[in-house]
Amino acid sequence: MGSAGLTAAVGKMRDAGVDEVAVLTFAHYYRQLELGETGMIPESSIEPVDIPSLRDVEVSDEAAAAAIRTTAVIKLNGGLGTSMGMDRAKSLLCVRRGMSFLDIIARQILHLRSVYDAPLPLLLMNSFRTSADTIDALARYTDLPVEGLPLEFRQNMEPRLLADTLMPLSWPRDPDLEWCPPGHGDIYTALRGSGLLDTLLEQGYERVFVSNSDNLGAVPDARVAGWFADSGAPFAIEAVRRTASDRKGGHFARRKADGRLVLRETAQTLPEDRKALENLDRHRYCSTNNIWFDLRAMKQTLDARDGILGLPLIRNEKTADPGDPSTPSVVQVETAMGSAVEVFDDARLIEVGRDRFIPVKTTNDLLVLRSDVYEITEGFVLDQVAADVPYVDLDSDYYKVVSEFEKRFPEGAPSMKKASSLRVTGDWTFGPGVQIVGDVRLETDSAQRVDGETVFSDDLVTQP
Questions:
Q1: Which of 290, 288, 293, 289 minimizes the C-alpha distance to 309?
Q2: Among 19, 237, 385, 415, which is most exposed with the fewest C-beta within 10 angstroms?
Q3: What DSSP line would sit under 165-192, residue for residue?
C-alpha cells in the first residue's frame, strides 16, 4: 500500500469498517499529500468568468413540473456547528416558533410533494456524529420517508494525520478526535459506496439537487430543475454575485490551460493571491453550494474512474484538539463538492437570486434569520421582507457560542427589517421588542441591558 503512514491509515479505516471505495479514495489523496500536493490554484492560472442568469431563462410550467417529479433531494447534514460551540447537528438549532432547520426542511419537502404530485425523496448525508440526533428529530414526520429509499446515508470518515509525519493521529483521551469527515466532496463516494446511486436510477430518478441543511433558501425549485433538465448538462451549480460578506470566501473562475470552470476555495489560494481573491470586481461569483447533477452522467463518470472522481485536494491543517491550540498540528484530507464542476464536460453555472443563499455559519447569521428580516410563507419558504439584509457583527467574546448568544437574547431577536447594520462591542443583553433602524453601534466595557421596546435609529451608544 506504500508508506508506513498510508498503510497504518488504511488499516485503521478498514478496522473501523469504512467502505472500501472511501478507503481507496483516501489513499489516492494521501499519495498526493506525500508528493507535496497542496491543491493551490494560482491566480496566474485562472481568469474571471461570466455566467447567465436564471431571470433570463424561460421554463414552461409543464417542463418544471416534469423535472421536479424525477428529482431527488440531498441535504448535507454532517456539520456539528463546532464554530458556534455546538456538539450536535447544527440543523437542530431553533430557527423560530419552535421549528429547527430540519423541521422547516421537512415541511418544505412535504409541501412541494403535494403541489407537484411528486415523490421528491429527501435523503440526508449525515456524519457519524449527526446521524442519531437527526433521525430522532425527524421521527415525527412519518410520511417523510419514500418507500425503497433510506432517509439518510452516512458520510465517510477518515483518520486525521499528524502534520509532521502523516501518521494517523492517536488521541486516547478522546478517540473521536482521531477521525474527521473528508469534506462534502465525499458525497459522490458515499452515494456510490452505499449503493444509493444505483438505487435512485433503478427507481426512475434522473437528477439530484444537493444543498446544505443550514441554507433554508435552498428549496428544490421546480423552475431551476426544469432549466437544468432542458440544458442537457451533466452538472450545474447555482451561483450568486459576491458581496462584502463573501470577500474572503471562494469563487468561480475559468482555468486558462483547458477552459474548464473551477471553484477556487480560500484554502486553495496562495497568500500572494489573497488580494485577487477578495477583488469583487474581478471574481464576481461565488457558490451557493446548491448543486444539480445528472445521475446517469455521475454513474458513468465514477465507473470510468474506478469510483474516484478526482476532485482537487484541499489540505486542511488544524490542531488535534480544536479547543486547544497547543496540541499537535494535524492534516485533514478534504475535497469540495462544488469542485466537481471541473470534472464534467459542459458543466454549467447559473446566477440565482440571493434568496436562494441564506447560510448560517455564525451567530451573526442566526440573529438575522431569527429576526423579522424574513417571513416564513406558505410552503415554509423564507421571504425577505426587508429591503436589504442587514450586516451584523456581534462581539465574539460574548456571542460566538450559541449558549452565550441565547442568554443575551432571552426574549428573541430584535426587529431588524429596517436595519442597515448592527455592530455590538461588549456584553449587551436585549429585552423584548427592541428595534434596530439604520446603522446602529453599541459599545460597552461592562455588562449592559437594553430595555424592552427600545428603538435605536442610526445610533452610536457607548456605555462605560
A1: 293
A2: 385
A3: T-PBP--TT-GGGGEE---GGGHHHHHH
Cβ atoms 25, 308 nearer than 8 A:
yes
Residue with cell 473551477: 262
The one catalytic residue among 299, 318, 361, 400: 361
Q: Look at residues 136, 249, 131 and name the one whose alpha carbon lies nearest to residue 181.
A: 131
| Structural element, H or E, at residue 122 | strand 122-126
Give dist(CA 119, CA 124) in Å, integer.
16
pTM exceeding 0.90:
yes
**Cβ-contact 239, 51 below 8 angstroms:** yes
Do 249 and 305 lie in one domain? The reply is: yes
Instruction: Compute the mean pLDDT over every residue in the chain, rounded to the nearest whole number.
Output: 95
Residues with Cβ within 8 Å of 357's Cβ and at least 6 positions away in sequence, in order, are 215, 217, 218, 238, 240, 288, 290
- Active site annotation includes 361: yes
Q: Which of 24, 356, 125 is nearest to 219 (CA)?
A: 356
CA distances for 71 relative to 121, 143, 224, 348, angstroms: 8, 18, 11, 18
Question: Which domain, by its residues, includes 179?
Answer: 4-356
Among 356, 377, 396, the domain-final residue is 356
| Grid cell of 39 as nine digits | 491543491
User: What is the number of domains present in the chain?
Assistant: 2
Q: Which of 327, 356, 385 is the last residue of a domain?
A: 356
Q: Which three cell numbers stand for residue 252?
A: 468561480
Look at residue 162 in the predicted model and tell me its pLDDT. 97
Residue for cell digits 462605560?
Answer: 464
267-326 per-position pLDDT tens digit: 899 999 999 999 999 999 999 999 999 999 999 999 999 999 999 998 989 999 987 899
Residue 2 has pLDDT above 70, yes or no: no
CATH number for the domain including 65? 3.90.550.10
Give the C-alpha separation, 447 to 434, whole Å: 17
- The Cα 133–Cα 88 span in angstroms is 7
Task: Please tell me the distance from the alpha carbon of residue 60 to that of residue 42, in angstroms, as a whole number.
Answer: 42
Please, what is the angle between helix 101-116 and helix 61-68, to 10°?
A: 120
Same domain, 299 and 400: no
Residue type, 410: P
Mean pLDDT of 216-223: 97
How many residues belong to the chain? 464
Beta strands in 369-414 (DSSP E): 374-376, 382-384, 391-394
